[in-house]
Amino acid sequence: MKITKWISGALTAVTMVAAATAARAEGGTLVMLVQPEPPSLASYLSTSGPIGLMAPKIYEGLLDYDKDLQAVPSLAKSYKVSADGKTVTFNLQKGVKWHDGEPFTSADVQFTVMEVLSKIHPRGPNSFREVESIDTPDEHTAIFNLKNPAPYMLRALSGYESPMAPKHLLEGEDYRSAPLGNKPVGTGPFKFVEWKKGQYIRLDKNEDYWKEGLPKLDRIVGRFIPDASTRTAAMENGEVHYGAYGAIPNIDAVRLREMDSIGVTTDGYGMINPMALIEFDTTEPPFDDPKVRKAVSMALDRQFLIDNIWFGYGQPATSALSSNFGATGLHDAEAANYPSGPNVDEAKKLLKEAGAEDISITLDLIPYGEDWRRAGEYMKQALGDIGIKADLRYEDVPTWLKRIYADYDFDMNVNYFYQLPDPVLGVHRHYGTDQIRQGTHFVNSSRYSNPDLDALLVKGAQEPDAEKRAAIYSDVQKILGDDKPVANLFEMNFLTVYDSSLKDHDTSALGAYGSFSEAYFDK
Length: 523
Hints:
Blueprint: H1 9-21, E1 29-33, H2 49-54, E2 63-65, E3 71-73, E4 76-81, E5 87-92, H3 106-120, H4 124-127, E6 131-138, E7 141-146, H5 167-170, E8 190-196, E9 200-205, E10 219-223, H6 228-236, E11 242-243, H7 250-256, E12 262-265, E13 274-280, H8 290-299, H9 302-308, E14 314-316, H10 344-354, E15 359-365, H11 370-384, E16 388-393, H12 397-407, E17 412-418, H13 423-426, H14 451-462, H15 466-483, E18 486-492, E19 496-499, E20 502-503, E21 520-521
Parallel strand pairs: 1-10, 15-16, 15-17
Antiparallel strand pairs: 2-3, 4-5, 5-7, 6-7, 8-9, 9-10, 11-19, 12-19, 13-17, 13-18, 14-18, 20-21
Helix pairs in contact: 8-10, 14-15
């Protein structure tokens, strides 16, 4: 199958360079799938998945995390937490430069956290909610002053989650439309070179990178290939070397994993706890009624979705919180009021009680690939079985993001959220009244507001005692199980498909969202 006929001569040349240089342990071009094309590269503004694939190669955070989820140095070479937990002092690396040659300093940290992440990032207002101020006594020291202890904050400082941005290029700009969004300047191992719309993003090796001897690759090219079968063929033929987050559909990944030249893994997703779900517009009929939302949740066969669309990779959702939070005692499946399987009769009964029989709605689908289209087709059928006529809508990423998070122009939206290592970081943003932030992506688009829940979320963020905290989140799950502003579907297990000669691409807990500074080809 000839799949390069539509690619520009420039990208074909890049692919040829990849083939010619991949035999060297150092150097070479890594061609990775980025699906779909990102709306921008402003990772300080949006946590859209495609942005996460490219931006952390450009931008860095104060810390990184190993596969055991332990913090390791990045732009901060060390940190110290005071005895009362209210002061965190970061000692920054020396000699770090932005890609334009300007020095990285504590002023960039102060500006990024206080003026950017705390205000416009989807998760930043929760991650840094306790930060009152940041002192910068010198260029290489940043002292975070907190109202209350916030140990979860130390889990939110990666280059993907909290990228440090250049103050000298962003200050005074409209953060949402600044040129930096499409022409990023970071401190990371790769520099932005060009963005050929509809085709690829090219990043080249940062020759002045502050980590000696890194990166090992000469170049990373993120290719956009809309058709799923063409993406699979490109991987099979060696034209691309890496695909994560469903870029290669599971139906193809389970076949490709039998090839010696291709590896398939579920590693590299330990920090994110992804959850597939449905968001409802809780402000308008019919989904302003919890009974209708419960009926939808009850009608869907979660195990069917896992087995037939994601080929066994996933676990049915049992709560508003991932079962992975069970390790810290926060997951309470018994309290959550989630169905163990579909119950059409009970769903119909709830719709009848709500006076919402024979209704028509639009079902929006996250535009991240064929698996979601197939899931939408199944949901349309399942909803039809309980008397809800659903019209499917699948749009490009910018249009979808604007519709859901800026215009609130939807009935039901199929999506997935990262719950991250702590509920404060990944769950609160979906339900808190203060997270109804029009225009900000991946927050409370349902516009659900419950004062009792809001109070519990504040307590959960501040409670240091593990048993008391578990009790708080048990109550959180009870409320969300009853109200169902969001219906969780299943805990996702993403697959990464890669050329087996590609090594050390998963050295951190961030996986595909890592820097790839250590990645190399071994042929």
